[in-house]
Amino acid sequence: MIIENVILLIGIALALGFVIGKITHHLRLTAIVGYIVAGIFLGPAFHVVKLSAYETNLIVSVTLGLIGFIIGGSFTLEFLRRLGKQSIAITIIESCITFLIVTLGVFLLTRNWGMSLLLGSLGPATAPAGTIAALHDCKARRGTLSKMTTAIVGLDDGVAIIIFVITIAILKFSLGEATLSVYSVLVKPGIEILGSIALGIVIGAILAYSAKKSGGRESILIISLTGILICIGFAEIFRLSSILACMLLGATFINLVPGIGRTFFEIVESILPPIYIIFFIVAGIKLRPDLLIEMGMIGIIYIVCRTAGKMSGAFIGAKTTKAEPVVQKYLGFTLMSQAGVAVGLACLVSGELSAYGEIGQELGAMAITIIAATTIIFEIIGPISVRYGVTRAGESGKE
Asked: pLDDT tens for residues 192-223?
């Protein structure tokens, strides 16, 4: 039986996601695992739900726009000054090394550059919520390692989004053109990235001006959602990256009106929980069990290479910037979690590459399947590795 009533579907999905999320939480697993499992029940397992490409793209685009907005809102000038060049340098080095190791590892197994670059671009993303929650559980927020971890997971997804945007732009043009040229590899992706940045800054400035003229929580909610949705809409019309544009929208807004901006972000974050549930359920619905067996070895390689990339990248970044020994030794352990942004970007691939024939559609399906499946693994080992790292660093219980 396939449910076609969208309102009933949303109600069932929220209820099932909430219940299974609570169960997984009591099992000491993140609720995200429960939401993905709920999606598997509704989709591949019992075929209760079948979403069209339009419905999937709509949910993914709006959710990623909100995620990008929230990530951008953390990049205040005060925050960046407080982080210093060291944290930013470590983040860039660690993300790039993870991208290279995952790309190379998958290519050596598959000899498929498209799949290799795609999974490589998804590897750097870290789950800030799961990591911060694990630090809170360990009561370790005031230690040197814990402070550095908190700073880097805030920046990690921003760098990951930029790597993804560059990679997916190159991949789209390579799938769409018989031969690659300097224009297709460098100029077109550059236009997409710069266009996304410009769009986010312009709408962010307009949103900041509008915020100064309004008052009250209702007006703030309407203005903020209006700005995000318009940004997503224009990004899709001009074929730009909606998540990068919304990230710049959030960063511009918070820096132009920091006082009002904090209220904006608190209100937007308050409406995210039910959207997150639907979003991760959609990821579970789109998961392809038939590809799990076929892609099993790629999933294992992805897990091994991403772990190696995070560990070696964090060490090299910390060593290069002369960070404290405790950061050099244990930072990699605190960066294992992967969830929202990686799953969202994997879902986005499906829509981005659907116009490129069977190859593009197959790449999108494999990306969602591998990332959704490995997210469950990383969300289990992530908190465990955080606890190990901060305990070995002597910071557990220092809150």
From this structure: 788 888 999 999 999 888 888 776 777 877 88
Give per-residue burial for 181-219: e unless 16+ CB within 10 Å, then b.
eeebeeebbeebbebbbebbbbbbebbbebbeeeeeeee
Residues 119, 171 contacting (CB under 8 angstroms): no
Give the sign of the dihedral formed by CA 130, CA 133, CA 138, CA 144: positive
Residues 6+ apart with CB under 8 A from 137: 383, 387
Total Cβ atoms within 10 A of residue 109: 16
What architecture is the 6-392 domain classified under in CATH?
Up-down Bundle (1.20)
φ/ψ of 396, rounded to 5, equals -65, 130
| C-alpha closest to that of 342 among 260, 280, 292 | 280
Would you call 45 exposed, middle or buried from its count of C-beta atoms within 10 A (0-12, 13-18, 19+)?
middle
| CA–CA gap between residue 61 and residue 72 (Å, rounded) | 16
Tell me how far apart the alpha carbons of residues 136 and 203 are, in angstroms, rounded to a whole number.
35
Is the pTM of the predicted complex or chain greater than 0.85?
Answer: no
